[in-house]
Design brief:
604 residues, Phosphoenolpyruvate Carboxykinase, domain 1, Phosphoenolpyruvate Carboxykinase, domain 3, 9-stranded mixed beta sheet, 6-stranded mixed beta sheet, 28% helix
Length: 604
């Protein structure tokens, strides 16, 4: 084995892992194009990957997962802290000693018949003060090629590890050893009961076993960038958040940087790649999913996108909903669990183009209109099918997206999906009020959420519920403490709701590109160009200071969009109080104060 590092800690960890997992060989990745091309060619030759039409999708490939391995497995995802109470009520907890005992038994010999890949990678621009160095060990070449796109894989990372003797170890296995002469499956994985996605925040360590899919296996993504990083950020005085980052530039060239947190299905990626409809205003993408933010020398909060690519949900992505995303994945991309058409292109539901047929995500022949034995439509692409695309290919990627110093955040935006009660936009009275708004962000459950049929609202603090690497009450407290640290340089906080409907079910706000009008109002507030109406819930736009030019918004519609439904908010506050009670003594006192202040304003 040719070891390309002199760092003793890293070499010892790799050797110990190889002794435990017993791979046929160990390979150190360098992040080169030659490496990527060779691994892809190997997977095409074994049938694991499908080479797509070079004219339609240059240098692009499709994969089909095992039907049991199609998404993050939150029920098998654990935060293993020494004290159970430190994991908090939003996480699954297992004693770290017991969990390691269980997983070591699973890891024993798990890479027999396979290659063990060692992937040095940086989350964020290599060498940035906000970035972190890590190494993932895996036996999945699919993971390696995805990590090439999603992170900065490079031997430069090894040089930094040698310099500072610091890295985050991430261990992954698909959990399917091969006996001598045994034929590998297209998508090896372990049964659900043997899947473990384990985080040891006190050791800054990640162990994953049994799944080859997405956030379960690409350990730089949710595991490191949010669960472990949120814990590190609390200790070190910065923030790791489930937020998009964009730049919004005025006609005069004034730049505003916005970080926004939304629960799933609330238009997060669409906003990150927004095409502005406000004349002269321009949106540029810095990140579509995760923000790492650290106070700079001037006291402001600076953000980087720790990722290097987009790992997006394919169904529903179209030229109509997100043309910039579609343009980003025209080449050099990986598709997982989509339809491969007869001419070896890709297709998914609500893509906005015709499809005559091909093979579906289960690798079976498929045509539109096919039904199962019960007459239900058979979807060609899995609802959680994905594309992995380099962020650099986004036509509206910001020139500063790889600036190691980051960009200064002016505005935080929170939101949820509410068909009634919550207005289009309102601003927090101050940063503490903004933290309260983010901590009580909520959406109405969809019809598909069968386990929530008795729940009126699903609360998702800062869109981070599955990703907080420690007690959520302590996490809220960290937000308040960051506000104290930033003082008058803290970002302004706003709450949006694009999803208000009329009584007969029609959208009140057109959404998509028109959301740029809401962003403009926020920027005008930061610049001191417009005033606001004070309401019990926050500061709201004055109609004559809000850009509605060219929109067919009647006075009645505007009034409905901006209506503060006192009774509806009182019900929401009651639901929020019940939700927050589960955090017990670790719920920050300032959350209780903010809750009571809102109650008083609503009742006055």
């Amino acid at each position: 084995m040719n070891t390309p590092t002199t760092n003793r800690k890293l070499m010892d960890w790799v050797n110990e892992t190889a002794a435990m997992c017993k791979p046929d060989q160990v390979y150190w990745c360098d992040g080169s194009k030659e490496e990527y091309d060779r691994l892809m060619a190997e997977m095409v030759s074994t049938g694991a990957a499908i080479k797509l039409n070079e004219e339609k999708r240059p240098n692009s490939f499709a994969f089909n997962s095992d039907p049991s391995d199609v998404a993050r497995v939150e029920g098998r995802t654990y935060i293993a802290t020494l004290k159970e109470e430190d994991a908090g009520p939003t996480n699954n907890w297992i004693d770290p000693f017991e969990l390691k005992k269980t997983m070591r038994a699973l890891y024993d010999g798990c890479m027999q018949g396979r290659t063990m890949y060692v992937i040095p990678f940086s989350m964020g621009p290599i060498g940035s003060d906000i970035a972190k160095n890590a190494v993932e060990i895996t036996d999945s070449p699919y993971v390696v090629v995805n990590m090439h796109i999603m992170t900065r894989v490079s031997t430069e990372v090894l040089r930094l590890i040698e310099k500072n003797d610091d890295f985050i170890p991430c261990l992954h296995s698909v959990g399917k050893p091969l006996a001598e002469g045994e034929q590998d499956s297209r998508w090896p994985c372990a049964p659900l009961e043997d899947k473990y996605i384990a985080h040891f925040p006190e050791e800054r360590l990640i162990w994953s076993y049994g799944s080859g899919y997405g956030g379960n296996a690409l350990l730089g993504k949710k595991c490191l960038a949010l669960r472990i990083a949120s814990s590190i950020a609390r200790q070190e005085g910065w923030m790791a958040e489930h937020m998009l980052i964009l730049r919004f530039t005025s006609p005069e060239g004034k730049r505003y940087h916005i970080a926004a947190a939304f629960p799933s299905a609330c238009g997060k990626t669409n906003l990150a790649m927004l095409q502005s409809t406000v004349p002269g205003w321009k949106v540029e993408t810095i990140g579509d999913d995760i923000a790492w933010m650290k106070p700079g020398a001037d006291g402001r909060l600076y953000a980087i996108n720790p990722e290097y690519g987009f790992f997006g949900v394919a169904p529903g992505t179209s030229d109509a909903s997100n043309p910039m995303a579609m343009a980003s994945l025209k080449a050099n991309s990986i598709y997982t669990n989509v339809v491969v058409t007869e001419d070896r292109d890709v297709w998914w539901e609500d893509m906005g183009v015709e499809c005559s047929g091909g093979t579906d995500w289960k690798n079976n022949p498929w045509k539109p209109g096919m039904t199962d034995e019960n007459g239900n439509p058979i979807k060609g692409a899995h609802p959680n099918s994905r594309f992995t695309a380099p962020a650099s290919q986004c036509p509206v990627i910001c020139d500063d997206w790889e600036n190691p110093a980051g960009v200064p955040i002016d505005i935080f935006v929170f939101g949820g999906k509410r068909t009634a009660t919550v207005p289009l936009v309102h601003e927090a009275f101050d940063f503490n009020h903004g933290v309260f708004m983010g901590a009580t962000a909520a959406s109405e459950p969809t019809a598909a959420a069968l386990d929530l049929h008795d729940v009126k609202l699903r609360f998702d603090p800062f869109a981070m519920t599955p990703f907080i690497g420690y007690h959520a009450g302590d996490y809220m407290q960290h937000w308040f403490e960051m506000g104290e640290q930033l003082g008058d340089k803290a970002p302004r906080c706003f709450y949006v709701n694009w999803f208000r409907k009329t009584d007969d079910g029609k959208w009140l706000w057109p959404g998509f590109g028109e959301n740029s009008r809401v962003l403009k109002w926020m920027c005008d507030r930061v610049a001191g160009k417009v005033g606001a109406n004070e309401t019990p819930i926050g500061l709201m736009p004055k109609k004559d200071e809000f850009c509605l030019d060219g929109l067919d918004i009647t006075a009645q519609t505007w009034d409905e969009l901006m209506k503060v439904n006192i009774e509806g908010y009182q019900e929401t506050v009651a639901d929020a109080e019940k939700y927050l009670a589960k955090f017990g003594e670790r719920l920050p006192a300032r959350m209780i104060e903010q809750l009571q202040a809102l109650k008083n304003r609503l009742n006055s």
